[in-house]
Write a structure and sequence with these properties.
The chain is α+β, with helices and mostly antiparallel strands. 31% of the residues lie in helices and 32% in strands. The chain has three domains: 2-97, no CATH class; 112-261, 60s Ribosomal Protein L30, Chain: A; 266-303, no CATH class. One zinc ion (ZN) binds at residues 124, 126, 128, 131, 164.
Length: 304
């Protein structure tokens, strides 16, 4: 739906504003088709449902019809005296989204340096800020550890379990939960560890604080969209803010987005720790806990 919201946001709509008859399926709660100018338009896809703004119970539907057009239908429910209105509901065919010969292309997609973002967005379903974060993280990891690009030994530990960034990691690096090259820990933060499993070294990327200066508006629109109380205008504004954030993130250097820490794997417990916390012990890289455990065992042997 993001393409349609962008088109509406940039005014690419043909206003119709006609009362129409709509076949509505109560079970699936969606319009099945509508008649307009003696022609029946069968709905093949419901793109989105929104709140209307004429009265509190109004709903609006963004639908795709069989001829490839996208229309906005407005369902107005009257709350006034039923004697004065022949029917308590009225459907209005609000507008048609204009088709463009070429797809609406964000300027950032024109740059060749922005690796495979289009493909990632296809895989994920839309182009959103956290998907860009995931792409940036992969790009940065491969720059820091170029050998991982060709090795099959790469593994990723992500410290969140529901971000679009995970789709970028799966698409770009081929690390999935299924092939056990992607481990997710539910810490709800954008921290990604990329490592060579056998080599026992890697980098940990932690999201820097990025100020977009739209936080209040963004959170408000996001809340409405998530809880289903967004009007079409809200959805259009939200899409615009998302696009702005995507463009902003694309513009930032990787170093401005993620802080980097080198990590090494403890030979005994297999945990990846900051390089400075790993020390050689009997010739093996070890974390402090494992080193103390070992020393403890050794000393008990010595004093027996
Ligand atoms: Zn997304
Ligand atoms: Zn250890």
């Amino acid at each position: 739906m993001e393409h349609e919201l962008r088109a509406i946001g940039s005014g690419q709509a043909e206003w119709i504003k006609q009362t129409v008859h709509v076949d509505y399926d109560n079970r699936s709660q969606r319009p099945l088709g509508f008649s307009n100018n003696g022609r029946y338009n069968k709905v093949i896809k419901l793109l989105g449902t929104f709140k209307g703004d004429l009265s509190p119970n109004d709903l609006t539907y963004l639908v795709k019809t069989v001829d490839g057009n996208t229309y906005h239908l407005y369902l107005h429910l009257f709350d006034s005296d039923p004697l004065h209105t022949p029917s308590p509901i009225r459907w209005t065919l609000d507008f048609r989204v204009l088709k463009r010969r070429e797809a609406i292309v964000l300027p950032l997609w024109k740059s060749s340096t922005h690796m495979r973002l289009e493909g990632v967005a296809d895989f994920h379903g839309d182009l959103c800020p956290e998907l860009v974060l995931g792409c940036k993280a992969c790009q940065m990891a491969l720059e820091l550890l170029p050998e991982l690009n060709t090795s099959r030994d790469i593994m990723v530990i992500a410290e969140n379990n529901n971000s679009p960034a995970l789709d970028a990691i799966q698409f770009v690096l081929g690390c999935t939960v299924g092939n056990r090259k992607l481990k997710v820990i539910d810490h709800n933060r954008h921290v990604y560890l990329f490592a060579s499993g056998i080599g026992g070294y890697g980098v940990k990327l932690s999201l820097e604080t990025i100020r977009f200066d739209d936080e209040n508006r963004f959170n408000e629109f996001e809340r409405k969209v998530v809880e289903g109380s967004a009007t079409l205008d809200d959805a259009v504004c939200y899409q615009r803010l998302l696009d702005d954030r995507v463009a902003r993130l694309m513009d930032l250097d990787n170093e401005e987005v993620f802080a980097v820490e080198k990590v090494r794997k403890c030979f005994l417990c297999s945990n990846f720790l900051t390089e400075s916390l790993i020390h050689e012990n009997y010739g093996f890289p070890m974390c402090e806990n494992c080193r103390l455990d070992m020393t403890g065992n050794n000393s008990s042997v010595v004093y027996q």
